[in-house]
Amino acid sequence: MKDNTKNILEIDDLHTSFFTQAGEVKALNGISFQVAFGEAIGIVGESGSGKSVTSLSIMRLLANNGKVTAGKILFEGRPLLALDDKSMQQIRGNEISMIFQDPMTCLNPVYTIGNQIMEPLLLHQNLNRKEARVKAVEMLGLVGIPAPEKRIDQYPHELSGGMRQRVMIAMALCCQPKLLIADEPTTALDVTIQAQILELMKELKEKMNTSIILITHDLGVVAEVCSRVVVLYGGRIMESGTSEDVFYRPRHPYTWGLLRSIPRGGERLVPIEGQPPDLLNAPAGCPFCIRCEYAMKICKEINPEFTLLEEQHQVACWLLHPQAPSVERGIN
Amino acid sequence: MENTTIPSLPAEVFVKLSSNEKTENEILRPSISYWQDVWIRLKQNKLAMLGLYTIGFILLLAILGPIFSQFSYSDQFLDKQGLPPNKTFWFGTDTLGRDMFVRVLYGARISLAVGFVATFINLTVGIIYGGIAGIIGGRVDNIMMRIVDVFYSIPLMLYVILLMVIIGPGLKSIFIALGLVYWVEMARIVRGQVLSLKEQEFILASRALGASTWGILFKHLIPNAMGPIIVTVTNSIPQAIFTEAFLSFIGLGVSAPMASWGMLASDAVSAIRSYPHILFFPALAIAITMLAFNFLGDGLRDALDPRLRK
Amino acid sequence: MDKHEVLLEINDLKKHFYLNGDLLGRNKSVLQAVDGVSFNICRGETLGLVGESGCGKTTIGRTIIKLYEPTAGQIFFAGEDITNLKPKAMLPYRKRMQMIFQDPYASLNVRMTVGDIIAEPLDIHMVATGKERQDRIKYLLNQVGLNSEHANRYPHEFSGGQRQRIGIARALAVNPEFIICDEPISALDVSIQAQVVNLMEDLQNKLGLTYLFIAHDLSMVKHISHRVGVMYLGKLVELGESDELYKNPLHPYTTALMSAIPVPDPKVSKNKQRIVLEGDVPSPINPPSGCRFRTRCRFAKDICADSDPPLREIGHKHFVACHLVTN
After folding, report:
1. I need a labelling partner for A120 at 20 to 30 A (CA). Which of A52, A254, B119, B128 fits?
2. Per-residue pLDDT tens for C71-123?
3. E strand or H helix at C48, and its extent?
4. Using CA atoms, how far apart are residues C204 and C208, in angstroms rounded to an integer?
5. Least confident of B136-145, B167-176, B278-287, C120-129
6. What is the mean pLDDT of residues B150-156?
7. pLDDT tens, residue by residue, C29-83
8. Containing H/E element for A18?
């Protein structure tokens, strides 16, 4: 699993904080995971989990008061955090691309979509305008926009939400990046459009052999697209493994809680009590401790280490310590 | 990450936590209202606070200064004309031997009075006019705003000059003239705010609860629009002061011996070559006051903007 | 459902918006947000309403509660015709029907304390003052699972889920019978959604509430609703009991919608036969003639372009608006 030659991205003990008026907000508190070539990995979490901050840390697009305070990010073996701005600019849009949640605000309303797709092409691929335009039309066709030669001169407001998201995908993929980070790409879209976009992403992943990091709070989306899943809470990884591991053999109380919160059958939902984590006053131990129905004394004091279950399945929970009491998953 | 040797831990650490124990270290932050938060943010802006203190200082001087001064603004010392600043006359004397310091302080009273009163009138008329236009909308709003547009089609200063010519000079006339004209700016701001807030969900919620239109305007819309209103107020005050100064400068202001800063400046122009200090101090006073209000206004705008909250 | 008394009935309800038009206000384009929808809700029941952007579900909620004036059709509340009532005459009805909104950050006035927000309906309808008002605020806060000491705090100090509870408390203040829930959980985290849904179910059982639950999360709607209606471009295309509708969808749009829901189960997801609809939703300003879904329907025939299919009962309490679905 940690074989360097198979991993396009390796994150090692990453810590990211935001320094605000009220104090230091520890958005990421030591996360580590790897993405293999051609793999789609899902990062699942809710508010305050740190999932978006992860992607911004990788792309080095944190706001002014945000900083990676510790850890390493290796892209194809290269340490990203050590690069200067200029080198990072070469990578963004070119080798690592990102698409965001709201296609309405992520496209510049005063430029045609053609111009916006050509921008990365002109920047990174040394094409002239004519060549770039041809490539842009090709990309629009690839992402399923009908009549691309006409659409290329339209403005974002003339397109629907689904089409705008396709344009974003075209922009992200036009330089054939090796890694695509998709931050809640379908959250703002209707369900039928979401289905289209997810199909598109799966198709393009096969065609271009791009690795994908899909960040979402929707477990259904993760099950559909990703082969591996990382579950984040309060800036730490709770559980990670293959899709089957996490959905069929989860061992962390938070994962249990999430799966029980989704309607299945007609039974009453079993929510996770409590509120999202307060990152300003993060507890010393496990961030989920306050909301966990199995929390023990040690959970409050010391952050649990990872226990390796199956080949790729690891869980950070004191319940897996040999001395811990065995628990029945779920109550009732 | 392999579990080869797991240290053995004391058994009691695996005891389940009660819900009290889980939450006992939760810190409840003190409740701060919106305005307290604004004040905290404003305090961090050094320039804005400098402006605030300056205004406070000038106000204090304007109210108390002349009381403690040994001279009154009309006392003339014909043997001491045109003296530069010295120990007795801190700002020197003017061409009629009057103490410049006391005259500038009196000028402050008049100029600041004009600034505050005129702005207060603008505020009241503007909020009512803009609020009504915004909340009723439709044709009423259309007509009301076209009237405002007509006002704006000619520089507002021109209206004031015309009014002053018609009504005649004097302090009360200045209040009326400024009050009749500059409310249009506030009206536009308030209407804009009301329009944008009208469609927010909390307004819809109030309507669904059965709140009346006027209730919504005064209980929800105006309070939420206070931010831009306050910023406009802090920018209107220097505008009014300057307008009054200009009117006095061209001879339409208050009558002698009452002296606003503009009058002082006007009187001083003829003597500018021989006694430049007579123009310098009133002009400096105007400049400092306007700068102070502008810094404060900028600081307030930033402090009131929710997006800039860190 | 204890009683079968019809609490809310809408009959061929239409809401059109007029846009643009030239300088003199002529030639305006018409946005047919809701174009002839009829259904009824019995006391104690939850009717779910689903659909995608532009289907009109939010508009219909706001029209029923008279935030928008209906263009045509009728609204009956407890048998009384409220369609054309003026705001003053509507006031007593506003005690009986309330609304919960989607955005927990925009639906509360951030300048007011939580206590004042919850008590606003009490103040408007002059139901309680002084100590009685304070007591009622405390009671409502407890009822929605919040600490009564929070009454003096401001909305920005609470999380999204807590703010939504405050909105619910406000809606409950004057003891309504009917609550329209306009996407009440869409903006919340998954683990918090379950909390709020459970709260709403508990309140329904305790207080005998009737809900119109408008949402786009199909699984959640199925969970909380007794019956579900599916809307497309201003029309109701299918209506039936929850289980039946999800097990046996009849309208081609409903089938596509059901199959598009991503299932949180990797094996099922991989083997699922997904019907992916082509194209985008047409504009509600210029909807297709006849059946509005025909431009994306893989079964469309000529008759679909000619006439608009009526809502007909096909199975037991199962209504479908499609020419091609017969008993």
Report:
1. A52
2. 999 999 999 999 999 988 999 999 999 999 999 889 999 888 999 999 999 99
3. strand C46-50
4. 5
5. B167-176
6. 84
7. 888 899 999 999 999 999 999 998 888 999 999 999 999 999 999 999 999 999 9
8. strand A7-20
CA–CA gap between residue C224 and residue C47 (Å, rounded): 9
With respect to residue B158, please indicate whether it lies within any of the assigned structural domains.
yes
Chain A CB contacts of C223 below 8 Å: 263, 266, 269
**Residue B123 CB contacts under 8 Å (≥ 6 apart), including other chains:** B186, B229, B233, B236
Name every chain C residue with its beta carbon within 8 A of the beta carbon of A260.
194
Tokens (6 digits) for C194 = 């379950």
Tell me which residue of B87, B82, B84 sits closest to B70, measured CA to CA: B87
Pairing of strands C227-232, C235-241: antiparallel
Does A237 contact B at CB distance below 8 Å? no
Is pLDDT of A1 > 50?
no
DSSP A296: B
Query: Which of B31, B34, B211 is closest, CB to CB, to C124?
Result: B211
How confident is the model over C153-167, as a mean pLDDT?
90
Beta carbons of A67 and A81 less than 8 angstroms apart: no
Do the domain assignments include residue B21? no
Q: Say if CB A156 and CB A164 are below 8 A apart.
A: yes
What is the CATH number for B266? Answer: 1.10.3720.10
C306's CB contacts (< 8 A; 6+ apart) are C289, C290
Distance CA A40, CA C266 (A): 13
Looking at residue B291, what is its pLDDT? 92
What is the number of helices (H) and of strands (E) in chain B? 13, 0
**Counted domains in chain B:** 1
| Of B1, B2, B16, Cβ closest to residue A296 | B16
Q: Phi/psi of residue A34, each to 5°? A: -130, 150
Task: Give residue B256's pLDDT.
Answer: 67
Contact assessment for residue A14 and residue A30, using Cβ atoms and an 8 Å cutoff = yes
Query: Can you give the pLDDT at residue A21?
Result: 76
Whether the CB-CB separation of A28 and A57 falls below 8 Å is answered with: yes
Inter-residue contact C42 to C4 (CB < 8 Å) = yes
Residues A142 and A151 sit within 8 Å (Cβ to Cβ): no
CA C196 to chain centre: 16
pTM: 0.85
- pLDDT (tens digit, 9 = 90+) per residue, B295-305? 999 899 888 87
Structure confidence at residue B168 (pLDDT):
79
Contacts of B21 in chain A (CB under 8 A): 297, 300
Residues of chain A contacting residue B310, judged by C-beta atoms under 8 Å apart: 20-21, 65
Q: If we measure between CA atoms, which residue out of A44, A8, A39 comes closest to residue A238?
A: A44
Structure tokens at A277: 């984590």
d(CA A280, CA A287): 12
In a domain, residue B3? The reply is no
Region label for C235, one of left (φ > 0), alpha (ψ between -120 and 50) or beta (otherwise): beta
Please state, in angstroms and rounded to a whole number, the distance separating the CA atoms of residues B101 and B141.
Answer: 49
Residue B25 pLDDT class (50, 70, 90 cuts)? low
- Best of B8, B24, B42, B310 to substitute, by most chain A Cβ atoms within 10 angstroms, is B310
**Domain containing B142: what range?**
41-78+95-308
Residue in the block written with tokens 């879904």: C293
Measured distance CA(C217)–CA(C202) in Å, rounded: 20
Return the sign of the alpha-carbon dihedral for residues A179, A184, A190, A191.
Answer: positive
Q: How far apart are CA C217 and CA C227, in angstroms?
A: 15
pLDDT band at A190 (very low <50, low <70, confident <90, very high): confident
C172 pLDDT higher than 80:
yes
Q: Would B85 be classed as within a structural domain? A: no
- Assigned token pair, A321: 């310590």
